[in-house]
Amino acid sequence: MIDFGYGLTPSATLKIENVDNPLFAELHRREPDVSKCIACGSCAASCSAGVFTQMNLRKVILSLQRGREKETLPMLQHCMLCGKCLLVCPRGINTRHLILSIGKVYKLEDK
Amino acid sequence: MSQNVVVIGGGPAGLEASRSLRDLGYTPILIEKEPVLGGHLARWDRLFPDGVEARSFLDPMVADLDGIKYFTDTEVSSINRLKDTWVVKLSNGLSAQVRAILLTTGFDLFKAEKKEEYGYGIYERVITNADLEDWFKSGAGPQFDNVNVIGFVHCVGSRDEKAGNRQCSKVCCVTAVKQACEIKEKFPGATVYCFYMDLRMFGRRYEDLYLKAQKDYGIRFVRGRVSEVSEDLDGHLFVKAEDTLFGKPMKIKMDMLVLMAGMAPSASTQPLARMVNIQTGEDGFFLPQSIIGKPCTSSREGIFFAGAATGPKTLPETLSEAASAALAIDRFLKTPQKR
Fold first, then answer.
1. Is B243 in contact with A36 (Cβ distance < 8 A)?
2. Considering chain A, what is the average pLDDT of its residues?
3. Which residue of B has its CA nearest to A34?
4. Cross-chain residue pair B223–A39, CB shorter than 8 Å
5. Burial letters for B223-232: b for 16+ Cβ neighbours within 10 Å, e otherwise?
6. Do B253 and B273 share a structural domain?
7. What's the predicted TM-score (pTM) here?
8. pLDDT tens per residue across span B216-255
9. Closest Cβ–Cβ partner in A14, A33, A36 for B250
10. B183 φ, ψ (degrees, to nearest 5)
11. Can you say whether residue B204 is alpha, beta or left, with left for phi > 0 and alpha for psi between -120 and 50 degrees?
12. Residue B339: inside a domain, yes or no?
């Protein structure tokens, strides 16, 4: 193929229609609180791992809600399950159970 | 014979204030420009936060008008100062000479067609919060089947300087969440989005409603203002917004879009302000003596306010202000006249 110096960049637009996948439904069944997040960012602010890595639970939840689970692995792999986010979450989300459930439902260990 | 008080505007504020004034021993003369009493409330189906029927508040008020002279389909032609009284001339030829006038002129719903980018009045599947209440209440308006994806756009004509309304209309956030839950009940399989800038759930049990919407109804909240709406050949809508939490643009195909039209000053505000020579604020609403301590008194003797005439208010706020305006008028009328 001749290189004309132009490239195709994939669209950055969120394809929100694809969100209704069975995996998110299964996650919601295991941990219904995943829909209670108000995106305040307390979890990310208190996160020890987040200081040095990409870990950001608020973004993880949002990525899952928007059907972008692939983007969550580079974040979640740094979580140490210390539970500080659980202490600060104003909605009382069981974040540790949520993170473990994400791992199980999306089979992140295998990836 | 008891003293007359003129009340201009027959919505919930005017009705409640008239009843309070009557109970205090006065004869209210209630003037309403529309053919029916009740204002916007007469069009509304259910009320936030608990979904109580609007008519359960309005019907008892409208049924309790003994001792109140009321005129529908009637407007104020002129108001003139005569010594320490006001002479109010009505479009039906009658006139009244009173010491106190209560302005309960409320608000106008923001005209959603002014936000052209949302396509209200152009695309059939774009409706307003009021249209949706009409539909809930009487089944009126366009009928849609196969409604799978529905969006609610918060802040239409609110917090929008370009649209001439800088103020927050206060009630639309919770109304959108209420209507989102209601539409989910009508179409349980549908996906419902709310596009918001902030969610202002200030009132008692409003936050509970928000939690219920998230948890029990699965309403999806997207922080971002809808930028434009377009239509495909089949009449479906394409809605563009930025998911500002994600930092990425999004485009969603929708079957129905509901615009949360906010509260704009009533069109009767400026003419009345000129008639009695009082000030309005920069936002176009009447300006009380103090928005904290004296929300019902104006800068002129004998002119009082209640309800959304002095800015966006919820129904309970309007009702309690109506009662306190009646007390303020009573206190004023009992004060000996200075001659």
1. no
2. 89
3. B215
4. yes
5. bbbbeebeee
6. no
7. 0.93
8. 999 999 999 999 999 999 889 999 999 999 999 999 999 9
9. A14
10. -70, -30
11. beta
12. no
